[in-house]
Amino acid sequence: MIRIINSITLTLIIVGAINWGVIAFFQLDFVAGLFGGQDAFLSRLVYGIIGLGGLYYLTKTLYPIGIITTVDTIDGNVGNVKYSTEVAEEYEENRRATEKDEE
Question: I want to staple 84 with a disulfide (CB 3.0 to 4.6 A). Which of 62, 80, 88, 92 is the partner?
C-alpha cells in the first residue's frame, strides 16, 4: 500500500515539476489548460494535490528511517539500516578475536 502511495505522489511531483518547467520556458500551463484556467476549481484541486504530494515527500526526506527503536552497537545497525563500514567490520572482528585470545 505504501509503495502505491509513494508511486502516486512521486508521479504527481514529476507532473508538477514538468508543468513548472513548461511555464518557465514556454509560458504554457498544462494543468490550467486541461482544467479550465488557473482559477477553475479542478485546476486548484490538482495544484493542491500536487502540493500535498510534495509535502509528503518532504517528510520522507526529513525522516527517511522513521522511528528508530533498536540499536545494535556491535554490528553497527540502527533499525533495518546498516551504517557500519568495512573498516569498522574489520576492527570489530579483530577486537572480538583479541578478546577471545585473552580469555
Answer: 88
